[in-house]
TrEMBL record:
Keywords: Oxidoreductase. This is SDR family oxidoreductase. GO terms for molecular function: oxidoreductase activity. It comes from the Bacteria. Residues 7-181 form the Ketoreductase domain. InterPro entries: KR_dom, NAD(P)-bd_dom_sf, Sc_DH/Rdtase_CS, SDR_DHRS6-like, SDR_fam. Belongs to the short-chain dehydrogenases/reductases (SDR) family. The keyword Chloroplast does not apply. It holds the Pfam family adh_short_C2.
Amino acid sequence: MTEFDGLKALVTGGASGIGRATAELLAARGAQVTVLDLAPESVDKPLLARRADVTDDASVREAVAAAAEEMGGLDILVNNAGIGAQGTVEDNDDETWHRVLDVNVLGMVRTTRAALPHLRASRHAAIVNTCSIAATAGLPQRALYSASKGAVLSLTLAMAADHVREGIRVNCVNPGTVDTPWVGRLLGAAEDPAAERAALEARQPTGRLVTAEEVAAAIAYLASPSAGASTGVALAVDGGMQGL
Ligand code: NAD
């Protein structure tokens, strides 16, 4: 018997990086897991997978309802799908602002709205949002991304307050720089990827990037019945970037 036996989880953006590591960890610890992603075909068993675009309300509603029906309920929602954006306020036009906020903030709202009726029926309901240290760190060249994650942090606290009496806990993780395909793409676009990677590592007090598995472990903790007294918490997984 493991901690997640009998629990059913949904992980958005679970086909890659942090979401994939989280879906795999929850499944390894006994949960039944469905991944919602733009690219569900790359997800392997025992994970279930459905195509959903978090910017499309109908697609989210349909996928969440189908997943809850297939699994026989829903206990855990990991709102993880997200995209990046670089630059200052002068570098991104309105269209880019709308697109990133649509995925990173409204995407979580849509998935949560669709999941709440199912979560209310659970005895161990938990939502974990993937936020970022960008929410509070004041990082350069990340105006839009930071604003989107600042909204995720506020949303997490507001949702925690709104749903605590219904027995639904809402928390978030704040990762630092995590070694995922996303960061791989960023490095790939750099003039000197090796030097850029060394610079990212040097920025971390631990001297290395955070792993997706380390973020997954934090998400799994917050999602687990062991964290039953924690709601409205932002757990840093940032190699000491904010604390030191
Ligand atoms: P990733 O690019 O490896 O994975 C993101 C996943 O989200 C992909 O599978 C992608 O298909 C999916 N996705 C994107 N848009 C979607 C949409 N509209 N609908 C459904 N799925 C969609 O990225 P990652 O590094 O694993 O990032 C995951 C989360 O972690 C994001 O919310 C990101 O902001 C956050 N985060 C990442 C880092 C980092 O350094 N990698 C740091 C802090 C926070």
